[in-house]
Records
---
Amino acid sequence: MRLILFFDLPRETAKERKVAADFRKRLVKEGFLMLQESVYCKLTLNMTGMKLLKERIGKFMPRKGSVMMLTVTEKQFGDMEICCGERRSEVEDSDKNLIII
C-alpha cells in the first residue's frame, strides 16, 4: 500500500517558509519520496503500518495550510498515468525491492 500525501502550506513569511521546509525535511526523514513539489508518497506493508504512519505525521503536521493523505494499493499506484513530461527514473514506483519479513 502507498500513502500519497498532498500539502499546500503558506510561505509568505520567513517563519512560514521555515515551517514548510521543516515539514518537507521530516517527510523525507520518514522515508517519503517526492513525486511533485508538494506531493510525496511512501510504501507501507499493511493497514496497521499505514495507521501508525498517519499518526506519526499527525504529530508533526503544520497547523496552518492543508495536508491531505490518500491510501492506494500498489496496483492503483502502478496504474497511474503520466500525461505530460517523462517518467523520472529516480522516483521509485514499484515494489521490486520490497522485502517482507
---
Amino acid sequence: MKRVQVLFLVALSSALILSGCNKEEEASETVVQPIVEPIVETQPEETETEEETEDETDLPPEEGMVRNSLTNEWIDGDLENARPIAVMSPNDSNALPHYNFSKADILYECPVEGGITRSMAVFKDWEDLDRIGNVRSSRDYFVYWALEWDSIYVHFGGPFYINDIIEQESTNNITGCSYGGTGKVGLYENAFYRATDRSAPQNAYASAEGINEAISKFDYSKTYREDYYVADHFKFASESEPNTLDSYSDAVSAKEIDLKKAYPITKTSFTYNEEDGLYYRSMYGKADTDAANNNQQLAFKNVFVQFTYHEVRDEHGYLAFQVHDTTRDGYYFTNGKAIHVTWEKTADYEPTRYFDDNGNEVEVNTGKTMICIVKDGDSINVDGNTLN
C-alpha cells in the first residue's frame, strides 16, 4: 500500500509541473503515467505433485505385473483372472511335512472329528507345482471357504455330508475317489498319484499336470466366473501405509499365539519375528515346514482366529460349523499385535469379512494369511493371556 501511495504522489507532482508549461510543449510532450505493478504472493515451487510422489511400492516392479487379489503381492499379469485351487490336506503327524504349502496364499485350519484338524491351502499360482499335498477327504464347511475364492476344489472323497454342496453345478471339484452316497461329481483319479515315500492314506498327492488334465476333462473354466468380484474380498492396506494396529487403543501385544487348547492334537502355534514382521507356524511343538521348498517354515503376515458355532453331527464325531449367515467374534494378528474383530459371511459365494469394534472393515496387510477356525467356547493363549 505504501508503495502505491508513493507512486501516486510522484504522478501528481509530475502533473502539476507539466501544467505550467506552454501549450506547445503540452501538445508536443506525452505524459507517461507510472505503471503500478501489483504485489503477487508467490507459492513455493512445487517440485512434485501428490501423484508424482506415489510410493514405489504402489508401482509394479516390472511392466505387466498386477496385484494378487489373495495377498496384494505383485504377480505376473497373466494370472490376474486365473482361478486358484483349494487343496484339502491332513494334519496328522505322519502326514507332515506337507509339499509346496509355503507357496499357498491362504491357509485354513479347522477341527474335524477325533480332535484332529485339517488344512485347506489356496494357491493362486500353482501351474508349476509337481507335488501338492498330501491330499485327503473333504468336509463340507471347507467347501464354503473354497467357494468364496472361486477356487477349484481338490480333495480325496469325503463323508456323505458333503454331497449337497459338492454336487451343486457351480462347485467345480476334482476328487480322487467317490464320496459318501452315490455322487461321483468331479471324480478323476488321474489328477492324483501315490508317492512311495509315505504310507497310505497319507501318500496321495496332486500335481499341476494332473489337475489341468481334470480341468480339461470336466470343461471347468480356469478364469473367474463373470459375477465374481476379484478385488472384493480382503480390504488391503497400502504397502506404503501398512496397518500397524497402532491406531487401536485396545490393541494387545501378540508375539506368541498358542492354539493348543483349541487344537489339542496338533498344538498349532505362531511366533512373531520382529526382523521380517511375519508369524511362523509350528505344529506338534516344532516348525511346520515345506518339504518341497528346502524345509522352509511356513510364515504369514496376517493371522485370523474365527470363533465359530459348531455341532457334533453323529456318533462318529463328524462336525458341522456355521460358516455363514452369522456374525461372531474373532481376532486379527499382524505386526506383533492383535485386535478383537467380528466376522461375517452372508452367503455361499460371498467373502468372509472382518470388522473392528468401531464397525470398520479391517485393513489387511500385504502378504500371506492364515485363518484358524476355533469352536465357540474354546480359548487361545496370546502372550500368556487367555482370549476367547
---
Amino acid sequence: MKNRLEEIRKDRGIRQEELALALGVSRQTIGSLENGRYNPSIILAFKIARYFGMQIEDIFIYEEEDG
C-alpha cells in the first residue's frame, strides 16, 4: 500500500513529531508509514484521515498484487 502522508504533512507545515503526538504514536511510526515500511491499523488510518480532514482513500492508496 502506498500513501501520500509525507506530502500532505509537509504541505501543511507539520513536523513528524507534531503529528505523532497528535495521533498518540511515536515519531518512528510516522517515519515508517511515510517510507512505506509499515501499514497502519485501520484505527490509525482513520485517525490520520480525521486529523487532516480527509478521506482514508485520499491518503492511502491500495494496489492489488498480481496473482
---
Amino acid sequence: MEKIRILVINPNSTATATAGILEDARRFAGEDFEVDVLGNPDGPTFIDTDADRKAAAPGMERILRENEGNYDGFVVACHCDPNVPLLRGMTKKPVVGIGQASLHMAALEGEPFSVVTTGEDSAAEKREQVGRTLLQGSCVSVRGGVLIEGGSAVENAMEQRILRGARLAVEQDGARRIVPAITGFPGLSRAVEDALGVPVLDSLACAMFLARDLAMYQRLQAPAAKKS
C-alpha cells in the first residue's frame, strides 16, 4: 500500500514560518507517511484578525485546487484554523486545522489542559475558539505568552514567552497538559515539555496524525463503497 501523502498549508506568506513548519513536519512524519509544506505567497505575513483570514482565503483556495489530486489529506497550519470550512467544501479529502486537532487531542488525554497563545491580545479570541469546540470542561485556562517589560530580545523570544505563560498555567491553573497555540518554531513544544516536566501537545503534530488517520480510513473504506 502506498504511503499516505499529506500537504500542510501555511496560510501566511512568511517564508521563515513555512521553513519552520516544514522542519517539524518532516520530523513528525518520519518514515511513516509523506508530507510537503506550501506557504501562501498571496496571504498576509501573519494571521491574527478576521481581515487577515479573509486575505488568506484566495491563496489557500488556489493551493488546494492545484494540489487536491496529489495528496490524501490537508492540514492548515495556523492555530485559529482560518478558512478550514471553506477548504472542506472544496474536497472530500480530510482538511484538518491544527487548532481544532490539538484541542480535541488534549481533551482525549483526559487531563486538564491549558492553551498558551502568543500574547494576551490574542487570548480572548482563543477562549472563543475553545468555547466553539465545547471543551471548556477540559480546558482550565487560556494564557498569553508573557513579555518581560524592558527585557532583551533573547528574554522575549517567542519560545521564552510561551514557556513563561505555560509555567503560570501549570503552577496557578492546575494544567497537566499544555497546548501552545503556535507553529513554525521548531522544537518549541519539546523545549517547553523538558523545562516544565508536563506533556506538551504540538498542534502541528496533532493535526498531521489526525489527517493521516482520516485519510487512511477513507482509503480502507473505498473498496466497500465501490461494492455497495
